[in-house]
Amino acid sequence: MSNSKPSAFEVKSYSVWDKLTRLFHWINVILVLALILVGGIMMYRAELGITELTGKIGLKTLHVYIGYAFAINLIIRLVWGFVGNKYARFSHMFPNANSKNELMTYKSELAAGKNPQYLGHNPKGKFAVLGIMLLLITIMVTGLLRAGTDIYFPPLGSAVQSYLADTNVDPASLKPYDATGVNTEKAAALKPLKGLAGEVHVYAVYLLLLLILLHVFAVVYTEVKRQPGIISAMFSGKKIIQGQPKDE
Question: Can you point out the beta strands (E) in the chain?
Fold first, then answer.
């Protein structure tokens, strides 16, 4: 990338999204869609004729395995947000102390008929990215909580079994959705936390779906009206900018 500043009409190509950032994005899209599909089947399993306990546990197990892949992908991205290149770092992607002024300037430039160009996310996009990332983390944490309390899967499953096991009962012998060997008082004490995690998990997914729809609309609108090439950049890593980028 050249250090010389382009003229207002010069078109240049910039390397922006590195390979790991692009991989996270598309792997995350696939895994989120898979989780939503399996989660939807779980919610409507009775209507779909899945009434056996083995079917319920099988769906939850599949959901958890996909969730592990989702969590690993997200954790890698969280680490990369601190050590990746300039445009992958959260310090560049998320709103900061100056974001309110940047957003006001961005809106005023658009109102004046200008077309500000950004290598990373524009000021509006930064707030959307922060919201999506917080929801992804919330979904991951609550999903792991439910994996441990529902079907005793890692990382919390063994601890939950040890807590729930009745006196002189081997915790490893406890089975999902089977009260055999379970201390009823401890199970009752755990139920509110389990329920809260489940509710937060589901509603976080609903909110994520809404933000994804808004994100897709905003990206397509920006691609067509404001800054062509932002969609292809998530495949190639390169953005084509006319004039001087606002955030170079």
Answer: 11-15, 238-242
